[in-house]
Amino acid sequence: MSVRDMLRSNDERFLALAAGLGPDEWARPSLCDAWTNHDVLAHLVIGYRSGAGATTREIICHGGSFDRANTAMACALAAARSPEELLDEFGELVYRPRGLGRVFPPQLLLGDHITHELDILFALDRAPQISGEAVVAVLNTQVALPNPFVPAYRNSRGLRLRATDIDWAHGDRGPLVEGRGVELVSVLGSRPRMLSALRGDGVKLLSSRISPSRIRRGG
């Protein structure tokens, strides 16, 4: 399966899952600092349809800060549109993305979408049902490519990483960190919530690299 096909399949699965969430669950804080689950959903919609010009104008309006601009756009859209309306739009954009959503590399979009799904599900203490193939694709991309939005490349340096539920490992030297693939995706993205689920002599080092202030809301 191509990465683009994997992205579409994953989005379809997420839509089916998200349709079952209630108003109280959408209003709950996510693992993405200062964002509710509703805000996270709005961010996913924006990522699939925002143009470069609109995004640049928001960044300029917020003093050159991508994080502040990203937060303003997501929160404004969440305030204007219900989760049901956002899910309807997301469902259309999965098949007909606009703006940056048409040209952004699918492997990075897959990582963004899965990381944010985990922001929602782990905040709700729900078990993710993401395919192992998709989780492996995200982990392989995130530890191999420096990404200004997801600090997994930096966080993984000098560590041996091993997933306990899927066939994935990274690094041949250094202290060990092991756990389920989805837990590794979340923690490597600087979400500390699932640190307690990880094991190994490298967890302390990984923990020292993560703080809420380092969470980039774009990823």
UniProtKB/TrEMBL annotation:
GO MF annotation: an example: metal ion binding
Domain Mycothiol-dependent maleylpyruvate isomerase metal-binding: 8-92
Domain of life of the organism encoding this protein: Bacteria
This protein's name: Mycothiol-dependent maleylpyruvate isomerase metal-binding domain-containing protein
